[in-house]
Amino acid sequence: MAKLYVIGIGPGGREHMTLKAVETIKKSDIIVGYTPYIDYLGDLVKGKEIYSTGMKGEIERCKLAIKKVKEGKNTAIISTGDAGLYGMAGPILELKEDIEVEIIPGVTAAFSAASELGSPIMHDFASISLSDLLTPWEVIEKRIEKAAEGDFVIAIYNPRSKGRKDHLEKAVEIMLKYKEGDTPVGIVKNSGRGNTEIILTTLVNISYEKVDMLSILIIGNSNTYVKDDQMITPRGYHIR
Amino acid sequence: MAKLYVIGIGPGGREHMTLKAVETIKKSDIIVGYTPYIDYLGDLVKGKEIYSTGMKGEIERCKLAIKKVKEGKNTAIISTGDAGLYGMAGPILELKEDIEVEIIPGVTAAFSAASELGSPIMHDFASISLSDLLTPWEVIEKRIEKAAEGDFVIAIYNPRSKGRKDHLEKAVEIMLKYKEGDTPVGIVKNSGRGNTEIILTTLVNISYEKVDMLSILIIGNSNTYVKDDQMITPRGYHIR
């Protein structure tokens, strides 16, 4: 019976794909995904039936993938990072009807960015998206507040949306109620994609104009420090 | 110049390792890790110089790996999941002195468990370890409280420690101040390791005796629901 595979391909670079993601793409007849993500796959999808659509076409992609499985084709729908975090796993399971679905996890951008910054996450952390396309801004603000109050390391996805440009500024304002101004902040652009750019700064010194939609921010907790240009969050004690 | 690679091998099964993790292990002369993790690697480490130690030997392993790099050997130190979350990246960077270190990210257990449960994370989430070996219990309690107050999906690592057995009960008690009793909870034992066991329950119905140290718990947010035995957290709207 044909199956729908929801595949997290990691941050973008082939090297961060899992063996299972690669194997599953190879055995799929049809590949569905957002155009730039399909491009990351390069020769892996050569000769396959490919359906790629623009950024806004998520639900359209899900419905198309489900339709292809019903037509008897093994179909892979592509997410970057992990398919189960801000990815395609949710919409597919909400829409799937009676077809068989397998979700293949991947390396999320926050972990890839962390590996490029040092070990900024390491301990308890909260992942928050600043996109208010699907979530009311009030909910996002409350989560930022509670995560900061709990002294979590905070990973910020979608720091800038085409619509409102001041989301990140507002988020930082809230975090500063609980986190020190000199809390280390790592900004990573194009994490895991070869052309990675890294900025190490502090909560009061973020250059907002340098943060784009493809950036991930990692804000430290009260123990996070910088040593040899690496952002380090200890696991709660001092090692010597 | 010899290098120290801190490698996140994913939840355990070979299939969830990234291409880079596999390639890096292959090119390393020396492999250092907790004995059961080394066992996951099987023939990948055949013929290599292997140093494996017990659970309490973490710092000992870090120091040994650093020593081997100073002796000119390319050395890989193994973490399960992602090396940067509750893994070896932090201790290594705290101890590394002047050697070159590269961190290779991986699939963390919460994402592997999520893929086996459906799409329970999907949106903003908090990762919290209940182990108080390195973190005061009061800090852990506060984080559980704030994460629940912020309506985060919550992924619980180390739900049971050999020492105190009532950590999870206490955590649930705190979460019930903000989350409904019928909030879906997914418990996954040995996620991504072939012998995976899954329990779908609710916050008031957790069978604590079935939760062991190798279990990951995912507690839903206020929108999480169960359909066809799958735990689904929507991305903040209804798709139809």
UniProtKB/TrEMBL annotation, chains A, B:
EC number annotated for this UniProt entry? 2.1.1.-
Q: Which residues form the Tetrapyrrole methylase domain?
A: 3-203
Please state the pathway this protein functions in, per its UniProt record. Cofactor biosynthesis; adenosylcobalamin biosynthesis
Keywords of the record, alphabetical order, are:
Cobalamin biosynthesis, Methyltransferase, S-adenosyl-L-methionine, Transferase
Give GO terms: molecular function aspect only. Answer: methyltransferase activity
GO terms under biological process: cobalamin biosynthetic process; methylation
Superkingdom of the source species: Bacteria
Keyword Phosphoprotein among UniProt keywords = no
Supply the Pfam families for this chain.
Answer: TP_methylase
PANTHER family with a match to the protein in the record:
COBALT-FACTOR III C(17)-METHYLTRANSFERASE-RELATED
Instruction: Report what the protein is called.
Output: Cobalt-precorrin-3B C(17)-methyltransferase
What species was this sequence derived from?
A: [Clostridium] ultunense Esp
Give the source lineage, highest ranks first: Bacteria, Bacillati, Bacillota, Tissierellia, Tissierellales
